[in-house]
Amino acid sequence: MTNLYMNKFGCDILHHSSEELASFGAEYFSRFFPEEEIIAHKRALMQIIEQDDRTRLHSFLQRVRPGLHAAYSWYFTTSRIVPSSSNPNGTNLLNIAVPVNTLSMTGHRISNMIEHDEYIRKNFFRFNMLSSREKEVIRLIVEGKSSYEIAQLLFRSIHTINTHRKNIIHKLEVTSLAGLIKFAVAFNLV
């Protein structure tokens, strides 16, 4: 029960190098975590180790303090068994801790990624319906170019560009410039 490695973020929080933290041995835990929480989490983690279930995760809220007389801060931590690189029969736990005060931002980012992914999956068939010329016209529209300017840039008639615009609106079923910009950004057209 020792800390073998700590990344720079963790070392900065605890005000010690990874080597110093490893040198504490078992004292590492009593130095930075409340004893009653160590006991509770140790039981759950030992159960995972005994079952040697490398797919199981143990997630929990924990308090961490950077020094013996410092105040505790809350972290959301997830632990998982990983093979030991130095001992083929050994077991290590990988712990990833995220400060609780950043979770709302993290949750918001995850929600945005999920929404972005859903939007792409929902509209991928529309993207595939577009010709390469229509994709080029979308890029130019999003850049703020008028039909006249696009016609000049692409050496086409303004009638041809307006036809492309109508086809784009029909294929994408967009009703606003904001909708077209959202589509263009999602599919990396700009």
List the helices and strands and how they pair.
Layout (H helix, E strand, L loop, with lengths): L7 H7 L3 H6 L3 H6 L2 H17 L6 E7 L8 E11 L7 E9 L3 H27 L2 H11 L4 H8 L3 H15 L4 H10 L4
Antiparallel strand pairs: 1-2, 2-3
Helix pairs in contact: 6-8, 6-9, 7-8
How would you explain this protein's 3D organization?
The longest helix is centred in the middle third of the chain and has 27 residues, at 103-129. This protein has two domains: 8-104, Beta-Lactamase (2-Layer Sandwich); 130-186, Winged helix-like DNA-binding domain superfamily/Winged helix DNA-binding domain (Arc Repressor Mutant, subunit A, Orthogonal Bundle), CATH 1.10.10.10. The chain has helices at 8-14, 18-23, 27-32, 35-51, 103-129, 132-142, 147-154, 158-172, 177-186, and strands spanning 58-64, 73-83, 91-99. It is built from nine helices and three strands; from the N terminus they run ααααβββααααα. The mean pLDDT is 87. The protein has 190 residues and is α+β, with helices and mostly antiparallel strands.
